[in-house]
Amino acid sequence: MTKSFTIYRSSAGSGKTRTLAKEYIRLALATDASGFRHILAVTFTNKATQEMKQRILEYLADFAAGRSNNLTQELKSELQFTDQQLRKKSADVLSLILHRYSQFSVSTIDAFFQRVIRSFTREAGLLGNFRLELDNDLVLDEVIAALLDELGPDHQQLTEWVVRFSRDRLEEGSSWNITQSLKDFAREIFNEDFKIVEERVLGVTKETHQEVMKNLRADCATFRAVMKKKADEALAILAAEGLTVEDFNFKDIGTAYSYFRTFSEGNYVGTRGARLQAYLAGAEAWAKKNSKGNHMRTVAEAQLLPILRAMAAHDEQYGKDFHTAEVILKNYYAFGLLAEITHKLQHYKSENNLMLLADAPQFLQRLIRDSDTPFIYEKVGSWFNHYLIDEFQDTSRLQWENFVPLLSEAADQHHENLIVGDVKQSIYRWRGGDLQLLQRDVVQRFGGERVNVQALDRNFRSAGHIVAFNNRFFAAAAKLVSREVEDEFPAQVYTDVAQQVSKWPEAGYVRIEFLEEDEGDWKESVLKQLPRWLEELHAQGIALSDIAILVRENQEGQRIAYFLLQHQQSPEAKPDFRYDVVSNDSLRLDSAWSVNVLTTAFLFLKNPEDRIARAQLAFELAGDASRDLFEKARKNELADFIPEEFILG
Fold first, then answer.
1. Residue 548 neighbours by CB under 8 Å, 6+ apart
2. pTM above 0.85, yes or no
């Protein structure tokens, strides 16, 4: 059987876009000039879409003009074209694409799904002028506002949930801004995992909430009552026999006495402690070997041990249900809030005749599952024979299930399809990506006999030493992770991590520097060393434009940009070196030293008695935040920092 499905397993810098552009052009040139209409190339961002379109058009323009590029020989060989045939066919395809640009189907996956949804407005229960909303936060603002408007005596349960939510967030040290906290929490309803159970959540009513909590509380109360009754019975026997905690071996620390007392007080303690296990084994462990101990062991053997074993048996049988009920009750407010927000979101969408883009995969899943594939094509108005999916590692499980019927139809007709992705990037879970898809599920779904797996193992972006470092580092790291988690899957995912060097085989430099653990802020230590590292690179003739500082969070990037800007104005800055930073933060006006000096000077001129403006101006001019600086500014001793003409004026 012909292998009509190709998987390109790629890595960083391995030419994913080039491969996809080449396959698109090959398929377009292999048929008549209008065949490009039946090819759909899908990626995940508008920027990637524009890059792919531009790349395809540039290649075709080169071929049509008779100019060679890095695809010329490959395409001539695979298509068995002469130079004249390649030039003529490329010119015809390019001309048709430019004249029928709307049929040039290179789009984001969201744009493709939008197109399908707009063809099924009646089936979706939407009016013809419905709005497809891309901004989830815009809708959430309205939904959360409606939720907060309902708080009060008339909605006691909802109010209790919001108060509980607020209290927990404050105890965790989160922001006091309840509106923003609720908004952040509510984003959970847009995740695919929640979408799977959304219909069931919408079926939960206020009466259901009350009934569930009532039953859970009853289960907890029943368990506590049974255990308390037995514990009270044991304590009563001890009192009647004249025995106290002092008579127990180890007294009240992990003993039967502490077990009885804890449950008698309405609390819980487990039976897994070594001492309690010894108590359960027999009466010998209950007391020391003396006259009082003999009496204790007799009472334990006859009366207390049966009670203790009965309690342990009851805990073994019902304890898990009790703990489950307790945990659910403790966190039920979260489910209640999600249910309320989901209900209000549904009402808002219905009232405003809109559909969220986040709802598209779930809606299409129901649609495609129950529909014939040709029917979907007819509704959309396009028929695709070939599907080329880029950045497949970002494809979610639901999106994949929506593509499967279309891909299956094309594969059954022996049309070529391909996907390109880097399974190693799936660990980031962008957009709900599932690494199992590219690693295993695609091959299983279509069958190994129809799938051709190829590795793009040549790096066209990085220098040789960097590629060599990555090859060794990630191979070792994958094995280490597999060993730690006792699972071969991580190592299997990274089987294709090794790349071949394409450019600069003897170039590149990797250096790793570890910081010693101390009581200080390690980020502060890094900040202090950054100027030194930049100076070392600058001394070697490396331009600032060739240096990038990567961070994990935006806040860290802002901190670095501000620090370097301040360092550049400080006495520690070397006069022959530059520390300019190009970032969103460094380009802000409030980050410019000259702007800050001027605005602070105006504030000082407006009110020379403003100590804060005076201190800020001294700081901006001196570039130093020493205690001596602010003390002089407080005393209005500014001659050391501010030009004399400014003060006299």
1. none
2. no
Residue whose entry in the numeric block shows the structure tokens 């009646």: 122
Alpha helices in 489-521 (DSSP H): 489-493
Distance CA 232, CA 311 (A): 12
Strand ranges of the sheet holding 39-43, from the earlier edge strand across to the other edge: 106-108, 39-43, 386-389, 417-421, 5-9, 451-455
> Are the CB atoms for 254 and 276 separated by under 8 Å?
yes
State the pairing for strand pair 5-9/451-455: parallel
Task: Tell me the CA distances in angstroms from 582 to 511, 546, 565, 611, one per residue in order.
Answer: 24, 12, 10, 33
Measured distance CA(563)–CA(583) in Å, rounded: 13
CA–CA separation, 295 and 305 (whole Å): 14
The DSSP letter of residue 488 is: S
Residues 237-291 pLDDT 10s? 999 988 888 888 888 888 888 999 999 998 998 888 888 888 888 888 888 776 6
Beta-carbon contacts of 541 under 8 Å, excluding residues fewer than 6 positions away, are none
Distance CA 25, CA 39 (A): 10
Identity of the residue numbered 641 = F
* Residues found in the chain: 649
- Phi and psi at 7, nearest 5°, equal -110, 120
Query: Please, are residues 499 and 458 in contact by the beta-carbon 8 Å criterion?
Result: yes
Helix, strand, or coil (residue 547): coil
Cα distance between residue 306 and residue 625, in whole Å: 73
Reported as a single tens digit per residue, the pLDDT across 597-613 is 888 888 888 887 777 77
Task: Show the tokens assigned to 322.
Answer: 């009790």
